[in-house]
Amino acid sequence: MKLEAELKSTKPMPVRQRAVLNILFTASWLDCHLARVLRPFGITHPQYNILRILNGSFPNGLSVLDIKSRMLDRSSNVSRLVEKLRLSGFAERVPHSGDRRMVIVTISVTGKQLLSDIDTTQFTDHEGGPGHKLSEPEAATLAELLDKFRD
Amino acid sequence: MKLEAELKSTKPMPVRQRAVLNILFTASWLDCHLARVLRPFGITHPQYNILRILNGSFPNGLSVLDIKSRMLDRSSNVSRLVEKLRLSGFAERVPHSGDRRMVIVTISVTGKQLLSDIDTTQFTDHEGGPGHKLSEPEAATLAELLDKFRD
DNA sequence: ACGCAAATAGTGTTAAAACACTTAAATTTG
DNA sequence: CAAATTTAAGTGTTTTAACACTATTTGCGT
Questions:
Q1: How confident is the model at residue A35 (pLDDT cuts 50, 70, 90)?
Q2: pLDDT tens, B87-100?
Q3: Is A65 part of the contact surface with chain B (CB cutoff 8 Å)?
Q4: Which of A18, B21, B47, B90 has the smallest set of CB atoms within 10 Å of its CB?
């Protein structure tokens, strides 16, 4: 559905404003879908995000700041989220030998199992997943325009 | 900056996954910018969102459900947000005469003044505003691709 | 070596989101 | 018309985000 219809907007919007609102609206829409898929697994979106990051650097771990710098939402509370993941058994924390300020966080076997259970493709390349109506070139164009948008 | 650089991603991503992450990342980036501009005015993003909606329907008011249906984030707590706006003097609430279940919310003069103070163009069409690097046709294409993405 | 600034992780607190539930009024149905 | 259903708004509670702050360790300059 077009943005104007979703938002029941009557007047036509300036094009850049339409782009801004559409980004925010689409992200909220995506978040909602993601939360619905994640709920049965007892994990939140930011926690899932961290697990994906840890999985990406596996078998190496990452410090808390490394995780933060790779997160979509940089203002979130990584220490507490990591602690949640540790309590759930999805991540491990070991003090860094060289620098005692640091803590190295690693995804656990259980955590890797969780990710494969969730089946990431459900959100990305799966048939019914979000964005399936876009062709690959269209998806590429979309990502490029977003990169340019943030410039 | 390109998404991969922002997220310090090493491996190449599937195109649709790249689009999904880019939408989420860009929205978070936008939110951050918006919060920075809004802070001096003592108003939050969802509150600003509601004020814009009320301003759009001025001089007519809207019921709480009408507001909710026009919001970017549909799961938020409109009653409490409206109460905050009322306490700050930016909105007014009057019971609906015909249907006593309903309450009609209207933007106040102070609220309209606040919006013009914030100068919405700062986020949309202003020179240094977000998305200023995009040409108008590019912004239009971006919005269309996002519409299609949600299909 | 000493003091100071930067870096790193974590905590405390307030405000907000998430979600289920409640109250009240209108509408439908038997 | 009475009871049940639906609709609208609001509330209670838990979890989380936001933001500023603290504590500890490291590195650096002198």
A1: confident
A2: 999 999 999 999 99
A3: no
A4: B47
